[in-house]
């Protein structure tokens, strides 16, 4: 919190998922140069009790499914990044993660909401339709 305050940082934003989606139940995408396939921040926001919000950031249709190959010493199978492109039948969402220190919930909600309003990346599911905005209430 001290670093955020001294540097006038209200909210951090980073990609939630850094690789295209892959086949459920298949090989997981391996780490590359110490970069995992999921957000860097999921672990410590949970440990700190810090608020976070994930919002739509667009869609992807190409994917490269990871696969298992026999290790060089032939004692195990290891996951490797796939090299055959596939096109998903339906676009899959990707997201951004907005997060901050404990107690910054309102800042997270304001920043995430502003991003969604500016980009219109959220596409409502056909069965649910757009979100209904309630009329302004005069009783506050």
List keywords for this structure.
140 residues, alpha+beta, three-stranded antiparallel beta sheet, two-stranded antiparallel ribbon, 3 helices, flat
Question: How would you describe this protein?
Answer:
19% of the residues lie in helices and 29% in strands. The protein is flat. The protein has a 3-stranded antiparallel sheet, with helices on one face. A two-stranded antiparallel sheet has the order 3-4. With 140 residues, it is α+β, with helices and mostly antiparallel strands. The protein contains 3 helices and 5 strands. The mean pLDDT is 80.
Low-confidence stretches: none
Number of helices: 3
Helix content: 10-25%
Give me the secondary-structure category: alpha+beta
How far do the termini sit from each other? 32 Å
**Proportion of β residues?**
25-35%
Q: What is the C-alpha radius of gyration, as a whole number of Å?
A: 19 Å
How does the major sheet shape up? 3 strands, antiparallel
The general outline is flat
Overall pLDDT level: 80
What order do the SSEs take from the amino end to the carboxyl end, as H and E? HEHEEEEH
DSSP, total strands: 5
Q: Biggest sheet: strands side by side, in what order? A: 1-5-2
Summarize the structure.
It is built from three helices and five strands, in the order H-E-H-E-E-E-E-H. The protein is an alpha+beta fold and 140 residues long.
Helix/strand layout:
Blueprint: H1 2-6, E1 12-15, H2 42-48, E2 52-64, E3 67-70, E4 77-80, E5 85-99, H3 105-119
Antiparallel strand pairs: 1-5, 2-5, 3-4
């Amino acid at each position: 919190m001290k670093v955020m305050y001294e540097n006038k940082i209200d909210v951090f934003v980073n990609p939630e998922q850094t690789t295209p989606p892959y086949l459920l139940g298949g090989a997981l995408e391996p780490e590359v140069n110490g970069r995992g396939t999921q957000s860097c921040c999921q672990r410590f926001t949970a440990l700190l009790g810090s608020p976070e919000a994930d919002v739509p950031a667009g869609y992807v249709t190409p994917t490269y499914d990871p696969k298992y190959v026999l290790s060089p010493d032939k004692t195990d199978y290891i996951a490797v990044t796939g090299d055959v492109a596939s096109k998903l039948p339906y676009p899959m969402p990707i997201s951004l993660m907005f997060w901050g220190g404990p107690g910054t919930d309102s800042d997270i909600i304001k920043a995430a909401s502003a991003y969604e309003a500016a980009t219109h990346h959220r596409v409502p599911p056909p069965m649910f339709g757009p979100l209904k905005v309630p009329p302004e209430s005069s009783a506050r």
